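Appendix B, example 12.
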Amino acid sequence: MSQSISRRSFLKCAGSGAVSLAAALLTGVCAAAQQPCLAGEPALLDGKAAVELLGYAPAPELGGVLGFFFIREPDLPRGQGTTFSNILYGFRPAVVRDNPRLYLSLAALGVYCMSQQVYMPYLIIYIQRFLGIADYTFLLAGVLIVSSVLSVLAGRPIDRLGKLRCLIPAGIVGFAGLVLMYFARSQWFVLAAGIVMLGGGMVISACCNGLIRDYTPAGKAGLFQGIRIVFQVLLPMVTGPYIGAAVIRGTGMTYEDLGTVKQVPTAEIFLAAAAALVLLAIPAALLKRKEAAK
């Protein structure tokens, strides 16, 4: 049965995002603080600035502590079986046969994540080296904030029309954004194209995750977390970045970083990501066929 996003689920997602953001921030701060000066250039980040930025790191932990006291969790029974059997549960062929719509939803999420990983590892370098936009902070902040707001506003239409019905339109929007990114050169054009690209992608992710939740057998959500990570993280990470690397390998554009010559990512990574996203139509069509036959 279709469900809307609850307040507790939203707060969990927000907390998870905050922790991820903090981890990325800490990684960037540490790398920048340790960056050696080359040819007399100033350091990327001095010690004082690093300490000031690191001061924000406890914020997600504070949110987790507050959530522990203010968010009520239901008492769930402990799962049956051994730890090893529970880990392998989602990989069993019989389980796959019994839950085809769940695994098609996981495949749809995997396709989107793979498409995202084609360009995401190279995005900052692309903005700096190919587009020549040195100060990209406000550009990325604008794309993230506006896209997040649009994805939240899309929540009600998704609940009203249905996640599966909204999946393909969201995919078309994300595809259009990727194509626009291929043509975007000015900062304002990149901002607009990035909002379309990431906004559509966030709605795709919301639809896929909602479908996964709806098709997960009651009381067995924990047993499918391992296979979910395989589709959402493992498979995209061993496919998407290599597709992007293959696309930029023959461009002939290079730059030097810490004495190492590296390839400059070009706009073709977005076309490759768009081509990968087209594969979303396959699990979506199969899901619609399953729903029609139900």
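The mean pLDDT is 80. The beta strands are 254-257, 260-263.
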